[in-house]
Amino acid sequence: METQSVELKAGEQALIGKMMVKNTSGTAVTLECTGQGAVLHQSEIVNSDATATFAMKVYYVVMNIYIEGDEGLAKWRDSFLTLMNLAIESNVPSMVEIMTEIGDALVLGNFRSALNACLKLIAREVELEQQAGMDVPVAAE
C-alpha cells in the first residue's frame, strides 16, 4: 500500500480520498495517509469556472480523473481525447509532447503523474502566450 504524508497549514483544507479535511488547529499538522486515493490541497482544486484556457481545461479533466480513479477515466476519457485532438490540431509540438506525456500516464493508471504533467502544460501555455505578447489568466499555481 502507498503511504503519503500530507502537511496542512493552520486553516488549510485538502481532499483526501473522497473527504475534505480541514486543519482546525492553530499550527501546521502532518497527516500520514495509507492506501489509494486522491490527495489534493485546496489550492490544487479547480472548478469548471477556472477553465478559461486550454491547459486549465486539461487540468480540470485530469483532476477529475485523479479524484474518481478508473471510473473517472471512463467518464472523462472522451473529454480528454477531444482536448488531445485540439492539441494536435494546434500544431504546437511542445504542447502535443506534454499532452502525450499526460495521456501515457493516464493509460498506465498514474493519475497523479498525469496531474503533475498538467502543471508543465500550464507553464508552457503561459510561456507561449507571453512570447506572443498576450495576457493569460493564471488559475492553478
Summarize the structure in words.
The protein is of the alpha+beta class and 141 residues long. A hairpin with a 2-residue loop joins strand 2 and strand 3 (19-22). The model has no long low-confidence stretch (mean pLDDT 92). The chain folds into two domains: 3-44, no CATH class; 48-131. The protein has helices spanning 54-68, 70-90, 93-107, 111-131; strands spanning 3-8, 13-16, 19-22, 29-34, 39-41. The longest helix is centred in the middle third of the chain and has 21 residues, at 70-90.
Count the strands? 5
Overall pLDDT level: 92
Spans of at least 5 consecutive residues whose pLDDT stays below 50 are: none
Q: Can you summarize the main beta sheet? A: 3 strands, antiparallel
Helicity level: 40-55%
Question: Could you spell the SSE succession in H and E letters?
Answer: EEEEEHHHH
CA radius of gyration is: 16 Å
Counted by DSSP, the helix tally is 4
Write out the strand line-up for the largest beta sheet, numbering strands in chain order: 3-2-5
Question: In what range is the share of β-strand residues?
Answer: 15-25%
Oligomer: single chain
Specify the overall morphology.
Answer: globular
Secondary-structure content class: alpha+beta
Any idea how many domains? 2
Span between termini = 29 Å
